[in-house]
Amino acid sequence: MSGDAETSGPKTIKPAKRPHGLGRGLSALLGEAQEEPVASPPRSGSSIQSIEISMIHPHPEQPRRQFDDGALQELADSIGKRGVIQPIIVRPDGSNYQIVAGERRWRAAQRAQLHRIPAIVRDFDEAETLEIALIENIQREDLNPIEEAEAYRKLIGHFGHSQEALGRLVGKSRSHIANLMRLLDLPKAVQGAVMEQRLTMGHARALIGADQCESLARTIEEKGLSVRETEALVRKSKSGGSEKSSSTNARSKAGDKDPDIAALEQHLADILGLKVEISHSDQGGGLLTLRYSTLDQLDMLCQRLSGEKI
After folding, report:
1. Is position 277 within any domain?
2. Which end of the chain has fewer CB atoms within 10 angstroms, the N or the C?
């Protein structure tokens, strides 16, 4: 149910009981399997089985949506010569099977005109299936930022996983997951540009919350702007094309702000409804500045910081 790379040869491993729970890694979620060819595939077990390709179909919620055609053909050519070395992972689905991991191998095997494919059948539930697919794709760096963000959103929204738990599961920080999920606030056209690698994640983060986001994205593509130039363009659009303030000019002379810091500023500003500035030092410290315009805003800020009603 993901992008794959063929390995040098099959391995025989002693069966082991599959652990449960987040944060144990892909091998723990998958469990271990012992190669044991059979005439006809049983419904579930830990042995490698040979299953009719026509009996297997992809999972509709597979995180990975895009497959490079050239790379897929190279894998198909390799499979045509050497066969499928690494089995795919499937789970029972009625009288057929649904792919948990290995969709790219399955697609390439079809191109190579194979009729059967080695597979391990496991009784995973829906949450485990998505967890495994997400981990495998991230470990192989097969997902683009939008696909990864959508997978996080599904695991959080449908199965109640927290950002901290997902971070432990995939080996990412909570802030990485939070920043990635903010990309889903972008218009679909801009998300599409990120998926097709016409815009980088840095470009996309700079565009979050910008007016006329799609128009700005087209300008960025047409002019081939860098992330720093994109940030300047977005700042200019938010100020209505006016000149930068003296503080902004001073910051520009010293070098534009790190995109992660800028994203955090925007995130806090969205929560507090105030202008937020973060000056971070390479030595590890920094200054957080919250600007208010009225006493009402100050009262609101004090309530939120103290948890009391004023």
Report:
1. yes
2. C
Task: Summarize pLDDT for 88-127 with one digit per residue, the tens.
Answer: 889 888 889 988 888 888 889 999 999 999 998 988 888 8
Cα(129)–Cα(123) distance, integer angstroms: 9
CB 97 within 8 A of CB 91: yes
User: What phi and psi values does residue 57 have, to the nearest 5 degrees?
Assistant: -140, 155
How many structural domains does the chain have? 1
Q: How far apart are CA 192 and CA 94, in angstroms?
A: 34
E strand map for the chain: 34-35, 47-52, 56-57, 88-93, 96-101, 116-121, 275-280, 286-291
The number of beta carbons lying within 10 Å of the beta carbon of residue 206 is 27
Q: Within a domain: residue 278?
A: yes
Residue 235 counted as domain residue? no
Contact 102, 64 (CB under 8 A): no
For 162-183, the pLDDT digits (tens) are 888 878 877 778 888 888 888 8
For residue 308, being part of any structural domain is answered with: yes
Q: Which domain holds residue 276?
A: 258-310
